[in-house]
Amino acid sequence: MGLQAWDCELVAKTRAASKQVDEYLFINGGGGAAGTFQVRDGRVTITYASDLVDHPMALVSTLAHELAHYRLAILGEHGPGGHEAHELATELAVAHAGFAVFSANSAFDFSRHSDAMGSGWKTSRSGYFSDRTWAFALALFLTLKGAEGEADGWVKPIIKDMMKSATKYLAKRPELLAPLKETS
After folding, report:
1. In this predicted structure, what is the pLDDT of residue 29?
2. Contact residues for 124 (Cβ-Cβ < 8 A; gap 6+)
3. 10-16 long-range contacts, CB within 8 A, separation 24+
4. In sequence order, what are the beta bridge partners of 149?
5. What is the DSSP string of 10-44?
6. Nearest to residue 142, comparing CAs of 104, 106, 109, 89?
7. Angle at CA of residue 46, ends 135 and 33, nearest 5°
8. Is 45 helix (H, G, I), strand (E, B) or coil?
9. Which positions of the chain have pLDDT values less than 50?
10. The pLDDT of residue 6
11. Which end of the chain is more exposed for a tag (fewer CB within 10 A), N or C?
């Protein structure tokens, strides 16, 4: 992201864990944010949830998002939509910086487990974009770069399918891309 020389403190934080309330029922501990960005007395601090170390895709996505906050803060911008849309603009900055694959793959996770004691499933969401929105952002980024299809082998199948649809949509509407090509 071109930020390697920018001063920043990176701090791991522990999130509340899930709690077992019955033999087969767990309640999410509310965990809190995967990461935060703040500037206090001129010092930049980025936090990340320490449990993400076991989930590198989500960790990279979280760090990219928080670093995108830093990049926008240095530029003195909230991005399109002003303060109300700042988090969404931050996600677009993640895509623009080339980290959309990580965020698209970790936006929604569904897993199932089964053993001799029982079975169950778990879902989690990360970030501010849905799978569909990340697929569109990724298709837009790749189309603007002339690199359509280059992420196909790196994204989840559901994202890949939605990206293909978005790429077709963009190909039929070049007028949508024209203003973006002027600024990229």
Report:
1. 59
2. 108, 109
3. 10/46, 10/47, 10/48, 11/45, 11/46, 11/47, 11/48, 12/47, 12/48, 12/49, 12/50, 12/53, 13/47, 13/48, 13/49, 13/50, 14/49, 14/50, 14/51, 15/49, 15/50, 15/51
4. none
5. EEEEPPPPPEEEETTEEE------SEEEEEETTEE
6. 104
7. 60
8. strand
9. none
10. 85
11. C
Please state whether 25 falls in left (phi above 0), alpha (psi between -120 and 50) or beta: beta
- C-alpha span between 30 and 112 (Å, rounded): 20
Structure tokens at 32: 């809190």
The residue ranges of every structural domain in the chain are 1-129, 131-184
Where do we find the tokens 């280059």? 150
Q: How many other C-beta atoms lie within 10 A of the C-beta of residue 47?
A: 19
Q: In Å, what is the CA distance from 45 to each residue of 66, 79, 87, 91?
A: 10, 21, 17, 19
Can you give the pLDDT at residue 167? Answer: 96
Q: Is 1 helix (H, G, I), strand (E, B) or coil?
A: coil
Distance CA 112, CA 119 (A): 7
State the Cα–Cα distance between residues 17 and 32, nearest whole angstrom.
Answer: 10
